[in-house]
Amino acid sequence: MSERKVLNKYYPPDFDPRKIPRLRLPKDRQYTVRLMAPCNMRCTTCGEYIYKGKKFNSRKETVQNEEYLGIKIFRFYIKCPRCLAEITFKTDPENADYIVEHGATRNFQALKLAEEQAEREAKEEEEEEKNNPMKLLEKRTQMSKQEMDLIEALEDLKDLNRRHANVNFDDMLKQYEEDKVTMLQRQEEEDEAFIRSVYGKGEEGIVKRIKDEDDADSDEEDPKRQKLTTPFEKPTDILIAGSPSTARQEPGVPVMPTGIASQRKASSKSLLAGLVKVKPLAAAKTNEPSPSASSGTSNGTETKVETTNSLGLLCSYSGSDDSE
């Protein structure tokens, strides 16, 4: 199978390159190349704007009898995309740019003009220094001053680096921690002083607190609650504690003195009176005194008065409940 791209040619043994006729081409021959517009331009025929970078199929030729330092200059032919008018431009190796020759005008380019202006000023300054020695002396003096300023700045930077090189970072961190602790202590002391000034004792004395109405109400209700509360678990414990006959004396237990016992009995009666309430009878029975009783009183005989104790009151209270 033969080679597809035919990179290698076959040369027979009797091949003689001197017998091949030389191809004579004209020096101003043209080549078809594809390029982009080198600059913004406007067609003079139809006024179409052609931006930089637009692609064209152009023809390239070598400009005859024009060179710059042995560098050849080339000319390119393109057509306007709107009216198909021919536009030509050539290379400018001296300024590393292109020159539009025919068919279009180059648009304004601020950057190019600024660069040209800067180059022109630099050339004028160089010529002035060559012709004016005082200008050259002033420039040298200014340059030496700038150099001295740079040297001083460099020395300052070196001293600063030397100072930082001798710093002990452990001591620096320790100092930072100590400063932080002292700052926290000072803040705590200031907070405590503020709290003392607001809630504590001041220089004038104790700060009095205003009594609230809720506190007054609670104080008024406390005595009532104290009256209702008893030290006994069951209501019948009052009777057992109050009656000396029913109380059993255990061996080894000391006997309570009579004064204390009487006081305790009185307190138990008062507690019982607050605890048990007698209901009023619907029809109270009134007993008229008998003549014998009146005669007995006249004769000097004393009648026995019935006395009611706590146990009797309790019995009568239960009896009234049963009758109802």
TrEMBL record:
**Superkingdom of the source?**
Eukaryota
Coiled coil ranges: 106-163
Its recorded name reads: Splicing factor YJU2
Molecular function in Gene Ontology: metal ion binding
Q: Which PANTHER family match?
A: SPLICING FACTOR YJU2
Disordered: where is this region? 209-258, 281-324
Polar residues bias located where?
287-324
**What InterPro entries would the database entry show?**
Saf4/Yju2, Yju2
One GO cellular component term noted in the UniProt record for this chain: U2-type catalytic step 1 spliceosome
List, in alphabetical order, the GO biological process terms annotated in this UniProt record. mRNA splicing, via spliceosome
> Subcellular location, in the record's words?
Nucleus
Is Coiled coil among the key words of this record? yes
Protein keywords? Coiled coil, Metal-binding, mRNA processing, mRNA splicing, Nucleus, Spliceosome, Zinc
